[in-house]
Amino acid sequence: MTAVSEAVTSSALRAREATVRRFAFTDMVFRAATRASAILVLVLLGGVAISLVAGSWEALSKFGLNFLTTEAWNPVTENFGALAPIYGTVVTSAIAIIIAVPIGIGIAVFLTELCPRPLRRPIGIAVELLAGIPSIIYGIWGLFVFAPFLQTTIQPFIINIFHSVPGLNSLFAGPPYGIGLLTSSLILAIMVLPFITSITKDVFDTVPAVLKESAYGIGCTTWEVTRRVVIPYTRVGIMGGVMLGLGRALGETMAVTFVIGNAHRISASLFAPGTTISATIANEFTEADGALYTSSLVALGLILFIITFIILAIARYMLLRIDSRTGA
Amino acid sequence: MSTAASLHQSRKRKNAVMMALCVIAAGIGLAWLALILGALIYKGLSGVSLSVFTQMTPPPGDAGGLLNAIYGSIIMTIIGIVVGTPIGVLAGTYMAEYGRFSRLTTVVRFINDILLSAPSIIVGLFVYELMVRPMGHFSAIAGAVALSILVIPVVVRTTEDMLNLVPNALREAGTAIGAPRWVVIRSVAYRAALSGIVTGILLAIARISGETAPLLFTALNNQFWSSNLNAPMASLPVTIFQFALSPYEEWQQLAWTGALIITLTVLGLSIFARSLTGRREDR
Amino acid sequence: MRHFIRSAAVAIAMATASTLTLSAAWAADISGAGATFPYPIYAKWADAYKKETGTGLNYQSIGSGGGIKQIKAKTVTFGASDAPLKGDELDSTGLAQFPMVMGGIVPVVNLEGIKPGELVLDGPTLADIFIGKITNWNDAAIKKLNPKIKLPDQAIAVVHRSDGSGTTFNFSYYLGDVSADWKSKVGVDKALEWPVGIGAKGNEGVANNVSQTGGAIGYVEYAYAKQNKLTYADMVNKDGKKVAPTAKAFSAAAANADWNSQPGYGVILANQAGAESWPMTSATWILVYKKPDDATATAEALKFFAWSYAKGDKMAAELDYVPMPDKVVKSVEEMWGKDIVDKDGKPLFSGM
Known about the structure:
The complex is a heterotrimer of chains A (328), B (283) and C (352). With 328 residues, chain A is mainly α. Chain A has helices spanning 2-63, 66-69, 83-114, 117-132, 135-162, 168-171, 181-205, 209-217, 222-251, 254-259, 277-284, 291-326; strands spanning 73-74, 79-80. Chain A is built from twelve helices and two strands, in the order ααββαααααααααα. In chain A, helix 3 packs parallel to helix 7, helix 4 (117-132) packs across helix 7 and helix 7 crosses helix 9 (222-251). Chain A is globular and about 95 Å long. Chain A starts with a helix and ends with a helix. Chains in contact: A-B, A-C, B-C.
């Protein structure tokens, strides 16, 4: 009796062992595959970064740190500086994010908490659709439809309102060209909205119902649940969505080049033409033939990397501080 | 007592205001969409006809279609997605599952986030140096690789975020019944995060389907029909770019029509993918 | 560490697998790349040529700078540029250069009540406007040129190209030729540090900004002015004669030029002598290797160019381009027969 049961157990054990070994093997393969992919991503994306450094070497060794502080951009005398595009990039992206984040989160709250169930998916898809419109169409639409509208109605109106308010009058100084920093910020805000909205909506959906129900249970309003439970739970995910959006805003080229006015100047007014890093690259790269000129354009790309790097570091630091304060 | 009542009132009021703002936000989003889509349909729809899908891109002054550009875009987008998505999803899986706390993950995440904002023309130049110059000619495959490099950061970012949001209790439940790690990842984590991962892939498709800059220096473009992956291939965005900025009416019309086709395709894909993942969510 | 090695091995294997599938190379079509300005006419010729001979020739506009880079990197059979290469650069790279087709650049304005061709400008005045010295439409210099029309008291809004462009090169070359001030302060290039104005992308962007902004002035290729029905200005040319932008005036400038004075026919057609010459005429050039690696492809390309010279004139005129004068074509084809050879020194071109 015992012999039989022992035999059964040992064969079961053997089978079990084989299965475990097989599982362990598959697991190892899968693990290796994921790890290899992570390394491949590192190699590939690192390669892009390295090729940037190599390409910009000539300009950086010629101009040094002056490259960052010079406003001039003169292809004739080959004197290049990145200050104006840096300024334009930071300002347009910041305004775009400031506009798009509240609207994006608002839409996500609307979709997860308020919207009648049958309408949720159509509206969600509709917002995602904004991401599918080719960026050149945003550019053409901005140039032909949006900019003339701003030029004839909104901009004169704002200039009139603020012309006697100190500070704001230089921020919104004329003449109304229609195209300029603010116009591109608005176009960028529309373009990043779907990124922020769809990611935020998706992470809102992952909040365990138990958490929300218990908050509702102690009498919280929808806003309080959103503010105190949903957003804190999903803040890293929201941050990811904002990063995706910011990434697109910083790197967007075609749409911006049509509506920013492309002037290598820094003006206090948001209505004035300016330029961004990616707009400069897209505008001038195809026609640049001097080695120093080309190298300066690639160096602009490298600076964009560094800007992104700094913004990311700040974002991570802020998240860390929130974490340590809440003790989570 | 009255303070409690007034507190209740003010909380309710605040709630109503915030919720109204959310509705307004949704209204704004939809209004923008309506405005741009309206312009797109207004300008593009009149050019939609059978010949758009059956004829090649014409020289200026002639009638024609976008067949070669549509074909090229589909081929390169598919290859870009097929190459980029698995790498992105697997890398995201490593970062969220196996190596959540490893140093490799931190480095990859940082580089990945930086590359989200890389101007796509830079990616095009990288692939140009990597493939076009060594091969000695422009090719569709180089274009597809450039697109896949744009796909990867988007997919990595969304996959990692979505997997991180899967509650650990689910994974522990899987492990407790003896499932090995990869089974847990496949059947529990992926399933829980599916909708988000699909969103990431859709955003990636949406992003690359309109990209001009990385294709200009890799796949170039082609006026004629070409199905040779090793030769320059036409694509919708580059064609739209060239036609939209030309002085000739026929070309401008085709540019708007092409833009409408891209947008409607992304719309169709979104609905299709949503209906797939949606059904699973309902179950 | 072992994990790392194993994963690295997998990564390398994946990479090699993906490159292996590519190395199965087969011959690529004839392709050319470069200047944006001639793209429509090259596309038109290529289409007609394919219908007639079955040979496809794919030209793509990636910009003149891009075209020069690509032919140097030998990724294309021919490059195209709106700005000619200098003689020493042609010699050091072993490239042959010849002009293919021409066009005109036109100043366009947006002034109420002024119709196309009513306004007259001359070179120095145009330079002063774009340098920011003349800022109002009722300036004495403009009034002097236009005694008959009533000029408004309106600020001039300058619109220029923001992207690097052969159009800007030719335009600034002209301004530099007529104004020493322009030459020393702004200079001549495909992209400039503009003293005033807003930058718009492409001819289309300039055309659109000019037509939307009151008091604006810009410069575009002739086809854009014509297709968008913009108000163009007439110019006073080098001989002091008033000319309107027409195909005839562009041809006159080309006919008066001494094409053999520069290596590679690199003559800039701005400010040519002749009573009928339009002062802002421009040509666009083709670059091929004198001793190409792929002789067959280059021979095919030359056949296409010869065909375009011979049969493309009508198509060019339809799209508002100006064909090359016959004597230039003859000289170019003689140069092909002499200079462009295969590895054994045999000419690649032997007439049509």
